[in-house]
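#random but structural
TW: two for the price of one
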Amino acid sequence: MLSSTPRTTIKKGKIKAVYDTTELHAIIDDSLIAHIAILEDTGPVVIPMLAWRVEETVYIHGAKNSRLLRRLKGGQQTCLTFTLFDGWVLARSAFHHSAHYRSAVVFGTFTTIDDNQEKDRLLNHFIEQIAPKRTETIRLSNDKELNATELLAIPLTEVSVKIGKHGVNDDAADLDIPVWAGVIPYRTVIGPLIATSDLSETIAEPDYSAAYNERWHQAE
């Protein structure tokens, strides 16, 4: 169960607050993109970054000269947001139109992973999340590449989760308005694979569907 802090307590739309770590993990694992806030001399900046989770820690990586990573490596307090859009809610009144979504907000500071062996393990873990068993066949990172890569970690210790999935919330006075009401669902479909133009015809297409469940493209 997630615990509340002054920063994570949801004050608006409390019915949408969720404290289940399983829901938190699913949001992070499905989104893969974290919007990360830093404070520059000219003001706040929010930058999208690839992010992945291993147990109760989120990791990001990039080049050593990244301004975002330099700021975060210095111990600056930050906030990460993960958002999944699930659909439009169409009500009988303009005021009650809304959306279905899942979101998570993570507060804290990043620490740096300096050991190349640990960097390699965590970066390969990310590859395995998006393409199972791929690290068994590709060339893995060498020391030069690992030395050029910054890897940062933030624990999931101060987090809020909000999920909107409550459907249409029309006023009783509007229920007789003769207009359709309901939800337009949004779903992410993965695949099919698109091979690079220089790929040998002798190489068989891999199957990564295990990482994506029902979202994997199914040819009709």
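TW: number two ↓
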Amino acid sequence: MTTMTQKTGLKEFVIRVLVITLSSLIVAVNLNSFVAAGDLFPGGFTGVTRLIQRCALEFAGVELPFGPINLTLNAIPAFISFKLVGKRFTLYSCLTIVLTSIFTDLVPALDITEDILLISIFGGMISGFAGCLCLWVRVTSGGTDFIAIALSERKNVDAWSYIFCGNVVLLAIAGYLFGWDRALYSMLYQYACTQVIKMLDPDGRRATLLIVTGRESAGGVCAQIQETNHTATLIEGVGLYNGAPCVMIYSVVNDGEVRSLARKIRHSDPKAFVNVLRTERVVGKFYRRPRD
């Protein structure tokens, strides 16, 4: 059992490192080939780093490297995450930051297109995909994500609205200094990035299950739901088609768990009727897998 656990842990470690490396490389190529070509300002600390680099070049004639600035800005949020969220999660995320910083200074820019609209849309989509790669292995690209996750999981504070306000301030400064067209295109870049993350994030979506099953099979169905660490509500009822007694089980789970869970429920009761609804928002206690 110990050997099997060690093999599983090693496999998970290798997969995480490979995915983190790939994500960091994609981010670096995107920054050098799309963001730099369009003179855009992404959100978060990456955008702050770009703004500092741009100001130094414009007003002092000094070309600053990306890595040292990005690492310095991420130091305090990483410390907060280390204390409030978890050690392994923070260390893996720091690996993402370090690799992104190194790759950004080393990877050459690719001359793909000069169309600013294409740069904004596809650059944002690539950025969102790279961010989702990190989310799939339960790490983050760092920066403001550290603060948002720490406050939401430990302090029950929704920090995303504050981060959004911070990005607005960033774009306002960039627009005032370097032109409002770049700020507006940067907003389009951030919007495309956000939409891709919303679409692909495995833990960012919720689904409501309404399961109609017989009384004798309700226990097995509930056991399948409890294996996901979610709970359910059982409602007694009567089937109007045949007048037979039945139960309806109500539960909210992560969207990524629906397919596997529905298959297990059908295995427990082949006659079960499962209705899956998209859940826009959940208010109250909802189980989140630990990130560490």
